[in-house]
Amino acid sequence: MKILLTGGGTGGHFFPLIAVAQGLNKLASEKQLADFKLYYLAPEPFNEKLLAENNITFIKGSAGKVRRYFSLRNFLDIFRTGFGMIRALWTMYKLYPDVVFAKGGYASVPAIFAAWFFNIPIVVHESDSVPGRTNKWAGKVARRIALSLPEAAQYFPKEKTAFTGNPIRREILTPLKDGAKELLRLEPSIPVILVLGGSQGAQIINENIIEALPELVKRFSIIHQTGKNNFEAVQKSAAALLENDPQKERYNPFADLENEALRMAGGVADLAVSRAGSMIFEIAAWGVPAILIPITDSNGDHQRKNAYNYARTGAAIVIEENNLTSHILVAEMNRLIDDPAELERMKNAAKGFARIDAADLIAGEIMAIALEHYKKA
């Protein structure tokens, strides 16, 4: 049995694929499928270590990106996409998987096209309130469509769509509380703010956190995931601002948070500050109240809609970018931390929203379709 995964370009596409792959590997082991194999088709492997750890074979493909602004690269990428589709047809013919699981994004277009051409079952997952162009198209040819947010259901055929939640990797699903403050070297009695800008970091969040640092470290410990490209600049700015501050050790910047550190951060955080992409599902699974700062110009305004849809559960508040200042951010942090009853309500709302079984639900449906197709082949 062969299952092909496709999608990627960002962590929001790639990491849920890994979570579902973990669920599929578990099912294959339980069903004793000796010939079970997983493949990942994309222009780049994104994270070779995770692919290897989950027994996923990478197949290089080609795909062009359609940008929402004028660029000569849009013209050139038409040919790249065309070449990618021809290449994907040949790859699909040779491999002939039993199911293709697509996470969306331009990287998945050739694989979805080739699967449709060969009548191979397609399962699609959509993380956002508003699907991107690829998933809107893929939904028309997919056998099943899984959603992270029920608000996206209006864009897909009702009869093949299900609200499953967002798949989260097993290694970060459960927050780590015991000993986390000691390992992260945080003061035991100080509230902890976790700042997350997504896999690439978020410059506007970083700038406002840095500007507010002298005020923040007076009463909070800050765990700040800056993004790898931003880390050096953020670290230098913070060091200059806090050079003579007696509380400077309360600021803890990280280029990225590895699995164990991320679980610890989720376990000790009293409040999270985050973008409104796929990270909200991890924050919800940890039961951490959140301040969400959505990207203003995301495709289909999906981050803004994600943020408000999540906030309506009571688990978060939203500050839009055009309203964001360091003073407003600090004021909202103080207001929430000073209201333990509100924080507890937000925490319970987050846990109520979380679907921690999402990866297993999706993997189960993919496996059922794969077994059906495998027996017919």
Describe this structure as you would to a colleague.
By secondary structure, this protein is α/β, with parallel strands linked by helices. It has two domains: 2-167 and 356-376, Glycogen Phosphorylase B (Rossmann fold, 3-Layer(aba) Sandwich), CATH 3.40.50; 172-353, Rossmann fold, CATH 3.40.50.2000. The protein is 46% helix and 15% strand. The chain is built from 15 helices and 13 strands. It is elongated and about 70 Å long.
The H-level CATH homologous superfamily of the largest domain, spelled out, is Glycogen Phosphorylase B
**Secondary-structure arrangement, i.e. CATH architecture of the largest domain:** 3-Layer(aba) Sandwich
Task: Summarize the biggest pleated sheet.
Answer: 7 strands, parallel
- As a whole number of angstroms, the C-alpha radius of gyration is 21 Å
The total tally of domains equals 2
Q: Which band does the percent of strand residues land in?
A: 5-15%
* Helix/sheet category: alpha/beta
CATH topology of the largest domain: Rossmann fold
In the CATH scheme, the class of the largest domain would be Alpha Beta
Low-confidence stretches: none
Distance between the termini: 10 Å
Number of strands: 13
